[in-house]
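Standup notes, structure subgroup. Blocker cleared on the iron/sulfur cluster input:
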Amino acid sequence: MSALIQQDLAADLRDAAALPISREMACRLLRTNDELMPELLAVAQAARARFKPGVITFSRKVFLPLTNLCRDYCGYCTFRRDPGQPGAHTMTPDEVMETVRAGERMGCTEALFSLGDKPELIFPEAREALSRLGYKSTLQYLEAMCDKVLRESRLLPHPNPGLMSAEWLHRLARVAPSIGLMLETASERLLGKNRAHDNAPDKEPAKRLRVIEDAGKEKIPFTTGILIGIGETLEERVDALIAIRDLHARYGHIQEVIVQNFRAKAGTLMAAWPEPNGNEMLRTLAVARLLMPNMNIQAPPNLSDPHYADLLDGGINDWGGVSPLTPDFINPEKPWPHLDELQRQTEARGFELRQRLPVYPEFIPFAAAQSELLRQRLAQAPLHGENVLNPVSI
Ligand code: SF4
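Run returned:
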C-alpha cells in the first residue's frame, strides 16, 4: 500500500460512518508501516472519544489462583502445574477468604478467580484434593467460593474457569456478576504439533466461541479477548476480533475485549518465540477499536511496562484488573503498576482514571437479573467514579 493510499484511508476513517471497518480493511491496517502510525492512532483515538470520552477505567482486584492444576499444556504458560510439581497448589477456603479480607481493607471490589481447566479429568490427585474439600469438580468448588465471597465480603467475584457448559454458566452467573473466558485466537492451526495450543484441548476456538455464545443466550456480562503474537497470522487475528464482535452484535453481552500481548517465559515451549513489539500492539489495539468502535477495549498495563501509557494511544478505554495486593499469578514476573503511578500516567495523557466494578456499569442490569443475591449486592455496590483511588465503602 502506498503512503498516499494510506493517508486517504485515514482521512476516510475519520468519518464515524466508516466504522466499523471491514475485515479486509482491518487486515490492511494491521500492515500499516511505522511512519503512518500517527494517522492510524489518531483515527482510533477519535473513535474512542466518540464512545467514552476522557475517562479510562480499571478494576481494583485481588487475584485468587484457586488451583494451578490444569489438564492443558499451553506452550507459553508458567502458571500450570501437574500434581506433585513444586508450587502445585489448590487454595483452601480459608486462604481465599484471608486474601479477600486483605483486599477489602485496600478498597478492592473484585475477586478474580483464575484457575487451571478441569484438572480432575486427568489427575486422580486433583479429584482427591477436591473430595477432601467436599466437592466433585473444580467448577463446583469455584461456585461455592464465589458464593462465599459474595455473601461474606464486599468483593464481587469474577471467575475465569476455562471451558464450561451452558448449565455451569447459568450456575456461576448466579454468584458472579461477570464471567471471563479468553478466546485467545480463532486459529485452529495453533492446536497443531509444537504450536501454542498443542496438547491444550480446552483451547479449541470453536469450543470457546460456543461458551461465549451460550453466555450471550443467558445475557451474562462476559469478558473475553485475544492473545496476540502466539503464532497466528494477521488475518487470523482479525478473524478472532470479528468473531467476538459478531457474538456481541447478536447477544449484546460482551462487556469488554482484552487485547493481551504474548510475553515469552523461560522454561516454556515458546521461550524463544518473538514477542510482539510496542508498535504491533498499538496497531492491533487501533484496529480492534475500529472494528468495535462501541465496545470496551482493555489492555493490561503490566505486560507493557514501562511504556504502558503508550497503549492509550491505540484507543483503549480500560486497564483491566489491577491489584494493589496480589501478584499477577499468570505473569508473576510482570508486577502491576502502583495505582498512584497508574493514575499519574493516565492523567498525564489527559484522562481521568476511574475505578469500576468487575462488571461494567452498563451491564449491571444484566447481572442483577441473574439472582436475588446478586441484585442485592449490586444495589449496595458503588457503581463507579466516587473518589476512585481511595478505598470505597459499601
Ligand atoms: S494457559 Fe490456562 S489452560 Fe493453558 S496451561 Fe495455563 S492454566 Fe492451563
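Discussed briefly. Residues 70, 72-74, 77, 79-80, 116-117, 162, 200, 202 surround iron/sulfur cluster (CB under 6 Å).
Next: hand off to the docking folks.
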